[in-house]
Write a structure and sequence with these properties.
The chain crosses the membrane at residues 65-86. Keywords: Membrane, Transmembrane, Transmembrane helix. The protein is an alpha+beta fold and 195 residues long. It has six helices and five strands. It has helices spanning 3-28, 40-43, 54-62, 66-90, 108-120, 155-172, and strands at 96-99, 104-107, 125-134, 140-149, 177-186. Strand 4, helix 6 (155-172) and strand 5 form a beta-alpha-beta unit.
Length: 195
């Protein structure tokens, strides 16, 4: 992710957090006019009275669906938030690959985008995602390509152009040892169903 986009994301999250804290503090202060718009039974509640009465909560807990539903919702929310947090950590700034022949650096994200664009230009390829690993302290770069083919294309028809792309990329990245791993999948071809 480009550095400017990361900075904008963090600024947007910080502003949303500040707005949420400010609105929450304003609502909790009790000096606002919103109290007249809440339902009458809620405004009659005391400071430590729950919104859901104990009898209603006990009747809900007595239902067979209540506990599995609450547990499944909590587990799903935990897994989704953990996955989102891991994705945020992983999408930081990408590594740089030093190119000694030109005394410059190449971002692995730029290499991934270039490989994906070259592969998507091959006839029969519907979509390509690429991931490049290595290059920080090693002399090896590994590219993993997930190539989705059109339903009428076989892997043997696209392998020669992909081999050429791998060879040209390896020559351009010399002195690194470049290896390309390809995983094929096919776009599903739905047949019409007769009812």
């Amino acid at each position: 992710m480009p550095r400017s986009r990361t900075l904008l994301n963090r600024i947007a999250l910080a502003l949303c957090g500040l707005v949420a804290v400010a609105v929450g503090g304003w609502l909790c202060s009790g000096r606002t006019s919103w109290r007249s718009t809440v339902p009458e039974r809620w405004s009659a509640l005391g400071a430590h009275t729950p919104l859901v009465p104990a009898e209603r909560l006990a009747s809900l807990r007595g239902q067979e669906w209540w506990t599995p539903t609450v547990m499944a919702a909590a587990a799903a929310a935990t897994v989704l938030l953990a996955w989102w947090g891991a994705r945020q950590l992983r999408t930081g700034s990408r590594r740089l690959v030093a190119l000694p022949t030109s005394r410059s650096h190449l971002r692995t994200r730029a290499l991934e985008d270039t490989l994906a664009a070259l592969v998507e230009d091959v006839d029969g390829v519907a979509h390509c995602r690429s991931r490049v690993r290595g290059g920080t302290r090693t002399d090896r770069l590994d590219a993993v390509l997930r190539v989705r083919l059109h339903h009428d294309t076989t892997p043997s028809t696209v392998l020669p152009p992909l081999t050429r792309i791998a060879s040209d990329t390896g020559d351009a990245l010399d002195p690194y040892r470049f290896h390309m791993h390809i995983r094929f999948s096919a776009r599903s071809h739905r047949r019409p169903h007769v009812r």
